[in-house]
């Protein structure tokens, strides 16, 4: 017994020690991550492609606070409202972290009485979801939104949103993709002709929304079992939601004996036809699929909806870590701004949201696989010295370079070894070294070393800035 | 009486109506604001100057989550901890919004065992302070931080931080400024020789910190009345904190019979002398003032501290709205990373934080005063038509332009009036109009109109992209 007690006491002591060491947990909150310099370099590349496209289409940019009054977000997200992060009541207003950028945009429009704007907004949003971080699903993540608000002729802005998704996914070279398109009015019309009661439209729509993740059988049993839909209605829905195609499918459905009798469906199909005509002019119908199974989770959509998914290359072995999935989505929400306007004045809107985290996961994996070395700084030159006691001279020279707009670094040591200085350039990819030495100082020159070739040239001090500019102009 | 009752009823009805209309308050949370396209354009200018300087000095960039575990922030901010925003406990971890970027940076270093990095981080931070928004004080605001972490020879990184502040404030042309510099060790040494008990160092330091806002008499009475300092000690402090100057003041204090006997003060003064030598090599001592009244509120500083303030031009009438104040601050915090490391391993750090909101307020006011028209998009050309039924042709042409990388817009109307299209260019500053018409289509040309001069030239369709590029290359 004494032996056992001693063992237990020892175990307890060990545990106590461990607890003592870890006074606190050193981590970021669940579902969040830091971005180090390498990740940031990749992220900046993706942002740059996205922002370029948004600007190419003439968008302005806005920004809104990370939190909103809690009531601003209430009643906008349906079943997903439970995922909203609330702030603690510390006296004053009740606040929540934004769940997307669309609701704050609608609040911004109503508050400022703006009836006409094309804007983008790139910012983090927050969802208390179950994170799947290896697949790029986080609780804090960026959305890159482009929206067109205003009363315009039908489907012209909608077509432009799809053009933008097409441009961005092509630019980023993420592999093959398809943009699925549908319309809430077609869905609602379909539900009506299938015999779904009006009161069940939204909840049945949520079930259909799951079709990209679970097979039809499961969705059907949810509709019939949990949601009390008749098996006949479910089966009729089942037939429609298998359909996907292009203009010819739209034409066929416009002739469909049931759908063609439904006002909403007819409107939706008519606009879908127009949309496909515009997309043909843009030359992008090859990647667009009119897909009756696309439903989109959010409550506020009123017309066209769309979602871009990456397709897995057949002959390519893709690891589980980066699974294929949705990278962009959006649609038309003509009623949202009116929910904020005291007089209910509506501002029609259509927009798209690019999900950067999943794109980032793919780019990051690809970069790792390619062994491409990515630079995390833009430094053009390291100011170095071969001898001791030249700190002052290095400080003087680097100051001159900074003032001339040259990106320059030096080691923060009084007397660094030349080898260490050259090694630093190798490690960080700095292409040039400006070496000051006693002889060079006397001669009024600086020795410029090209790291890649190890070539060294003496450059007159007054020409140094120009010489560095020329030699790094391709960077 | 009946008349009065009717009147009251009418008033009540009106009130009821108003209440009904405003089902919710349409606003952003207290102390926050939206940034519209114009404000964003100004903000981007300021960011661009700041990021340029950070990159010129070879900084990498990182990002961290907007919230941290509550315990990560605990015990870092002294009296200001009450200003931290906590998230509601919705199950799971207890979280707080970041209060600055320095503590998350230290957590990042400890967590990733990084002992050597030069990085910048531009992001929003949150403080439940009393907002004074007209003066650029918000509850949500950007900080632009540049920090150097690592074990280096004394004062070289510290001097670079001051050089960066000098560069940025000069670049932004905010008017005259001064960068006040002091050292926590000099302050502590001064407190010791003035007879402040060790236990009161921090709280007396907080009092000194108020000297930029309230006169000495008030600070003195807080020290003596609230904080129980002897009047003699307070008066001795009062003599020191009036002092400010340059190298000659440092030399004088190094000879000061009391201070020179104090180990901490001597160390601090020795390093301050070294710092001024380096700043002389950088040629920026003209804007630097060694100021014994500078204390800085935050607990974590251990060495050099500094703060940049804008000086009001004497002959310039400045409105109350933009009052003169601190636009950057920072210092050395050698102990903070060790607070996160399980084994207490220290990583010496020094850094600077640029406060963009106050700078932004000044730039915004200046822009309004100057009546300079600021563009909020970069659109190079509007695709227009003079005749009806040319929507398809406009869509085809704009798609060609987008695919060639040209920034192009069109009105989202089937048959817009030419006048409206030209007016849109005037309003938004688009320099060129590409006009498609039936004759032009037949001739294989596009009519390119230069908005500023009203000149019109026919350009062959295959040369259009090149022509637009040339004509907008200076933009």
Automatic annotation (TrEMBL), chains A, B:
One GO term of the biological process aspect: mitochondrial translation
Residues annotated as binding L-histidine: 100-102, 127, 143, 147, 296, 300-301
Molecular-function GO term, any one: histidine-tRNA ligase activity
Gene3D superfamilies: Anticodon-binding domain (3.40.50.800), Bira Bifunctional Protein, Domain 2 (3.30.930.10)
EC number: 6.1.1.21
UniProt keyword annotations, A-Z: Aminoacyl-tRNA synthetase, ATP-binding, Ligase, Nucleotide-binding, Protein biosynthesis
Residues annotated as domain Aminoacyl-transfer RNA synthetases class-II family profile: 31-363
Cross-referenced InterPro entries: aa-tRNA-synth_II, aa-tRNA-synth_II/BPL/LPL, Anticodon-bd, Anticodon-bd_dom_sf, His-tRNA-ligase, HisRS-like_core, HisRS/HisZ, HisRS_anticodon
A GO CC annotation given for this chain: cytosol
Domain of life: Eukaryota
Reactions catalysed, as given in the entry: tRNA(His) + L-histidine + ATP = L-histidyl-tRNA(His) + AMP + diphosphate + H(+)
Enzyme class: ligase
UniProt keyword annotation of Methyltransferase present: no
Similarity comment: Belongs to the class-II aminoacyl-tRNA synthetase family.
Classification via PANTHER family: HISTIDINE--TRNA LIGASE (PTHR11476:SF7), HISTIDYL-TRNA SYNTHETASE (PTHR11476)
HAMAP family: His_tRNA_synth
Protein name per Swiss-Prot or TrEMBL: histidine--tRNA ligase
Originating organism: Gymnorhina tibicen (Australian magpie)
Gene: Hars_0
């Amino acid at each position: 017994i004494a032996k056992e007690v001693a063992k237990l006491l020892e175990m307890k002591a060990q545990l106590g020690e461990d607890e003592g060491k870890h006074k606190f947990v050193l981590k970021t909150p669940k579902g969040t991550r830091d971005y180090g310099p390498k990740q940031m370099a990749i992220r900046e590349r993706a942002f740059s492609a996205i922002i370029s496209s948004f600007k190419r289409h003439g968008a302005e940019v806005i920004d809104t606070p990370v939190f909103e009054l809690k009531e601003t977000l209430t009643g906008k997200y349906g079943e997903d409202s439970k995922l909203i992060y609330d702030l603690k009541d510390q006296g004053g207003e009740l606040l929540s972290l934004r769940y997307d950028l669309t609701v704050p945009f609608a609040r911004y429009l109503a508050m400022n009485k703006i009836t006409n704007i094309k804007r983008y907004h790139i910012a983090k949003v927050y969802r208390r979801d179950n994170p799947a971080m290896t697949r790029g699903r986080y609780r804090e993540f960026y959305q890159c939104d482009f929206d067109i608000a205003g009363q315009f002729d039908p489907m012209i802005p909608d077509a432009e949103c799809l053009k933008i998704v097409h441009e961005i996914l092509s630019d980023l070279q993420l592999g093959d993709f398809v943009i699925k398109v549908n319309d809430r009015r077609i869905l609602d019309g379909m539900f009506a002709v299938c015999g779904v009661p009006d009161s069940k439209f939204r909840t049945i729509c949520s079930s259909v929304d799951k079709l990209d993740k679970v097979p039809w059988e499961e969705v059907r049993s949810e509709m019939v079992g949990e949601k009390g839909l008749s098996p006949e209605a479910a089966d009729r829905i089942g037939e429609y939601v298998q359909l996907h195609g292009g203009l010819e499918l739209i034409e066929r459905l416009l002739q469909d004996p049931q759908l063609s009798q439904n006002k909403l469906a007819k409107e939706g199909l008519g606009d879908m036809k127009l949309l496909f005509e515009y997309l043909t002019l843009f030359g992008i119908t090859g990647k667009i699929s009119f897909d009756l199974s696309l439903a989109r989770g959010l409550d506020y959509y009123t017309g066209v909806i769309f979602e871009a998914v990456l397709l897995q290359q057949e002959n390519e072995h893709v690891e589980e870590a980066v699974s294929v999935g949705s990278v962009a989505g959006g649609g038309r929400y003509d009623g949202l701004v009116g929910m904020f306007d005291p007089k209910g004045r509506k501002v029609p809107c259509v927009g798209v949201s690019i999900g950067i985290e999943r794109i980032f996961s793919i780019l990051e994996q690809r970069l790792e696989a390619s062994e491409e070395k990515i630079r995390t700084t833009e430094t053009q030159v390291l100011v170095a010295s071969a001898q001791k006691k030249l700190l002052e001279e290095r400080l003087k020279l680097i100051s001159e370079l900074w003032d001339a707009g040259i990106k320059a670094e030096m080691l923060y040591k009084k007397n660094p070894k030349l080898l260490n200085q050259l090694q630093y350039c190798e490690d960080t990819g700095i292409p040039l070294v400006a070496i000051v030495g006693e002889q060079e100082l006397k001669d009024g020159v600086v020795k410029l070393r090209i790291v890649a070739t190890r070539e060294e040239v003496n450059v007159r001090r007054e020409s140094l800035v120009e010489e560095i500019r020329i030699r790094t102009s391709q960077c």
